[in-house]
């Protein structure tokens, strides 16, 4: 149950909108649609509508449609301006790629080549 002060304030809002209680009801619906349960929130909605000079629900609906259209235009405009980054795939990700044979996959496991390289390094460094 709402407090008497809130009910009085709601009645004043109806009077401010020249008895058009549909605007106050729409503000309540908007508040609930946004999952808010606060008189302050509803009051801010009504203040905004009053400052914009809305007199009827159709004024609010027209404004909201225009606002949504602007949002959509900005969004699509922003997406259109985004540069598309092109990347080249490495060779191994290209279609038809066949990997070179890994020395470790040879029958001797590439062991002879590795040992020869190790001997050479030892000789070069005198180890």
UniProtKB/TrEMBL annotation:
Short name of one Pfam family: DnaB_2
Region listing for Disordered, in residue ranges: 65-127
Domain of life from the UniProt record: Bacteria
Ranges where the DnaB/C C-terminal domain occurs: 3-63
UniProt-listed Gene3D superfamilies: DnaD domain-like (1.10.10.630)
Polar residues bias spans: 76-85
Family designation: Belongs to the DnaB/DnaD family.
Descriptive protein name: DnaB/C C-terminal domain-containing protein
Organism: Loigolactobacillus bifermentans DSM 20003
Taxonomic classification: Bacteria, Bacillati, Bacillota, Bacilli, Lactobacillales
């Amino acid at each position: 149950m709402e407090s008497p002060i809130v009910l009085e304030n709601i009645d004043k809002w109806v009077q401010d909108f020249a008895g058009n209680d549909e605007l106050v009801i729409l503000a309540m619906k908007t508040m609930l649609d946004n999952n808010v349960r606060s008189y302050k929130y509803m009051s801010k909605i009504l203040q905004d509508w009053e400052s914009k000079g809305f007199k009827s629900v159709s004024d609010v609906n027209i404004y909201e449609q225009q606002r949504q259209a602007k949002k959509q235009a900005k969004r699509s405009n922003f997406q259109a301006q985004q540069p598309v980054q092109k990347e080249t795939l490495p060779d191994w990700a290209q279609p038809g790629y066949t990997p070179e044979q890994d020395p470790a996959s040879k029958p001797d496991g590439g062991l002879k080549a590795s040992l020869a390289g190790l001997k050479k390094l030892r000789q070069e460094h005198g180890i």
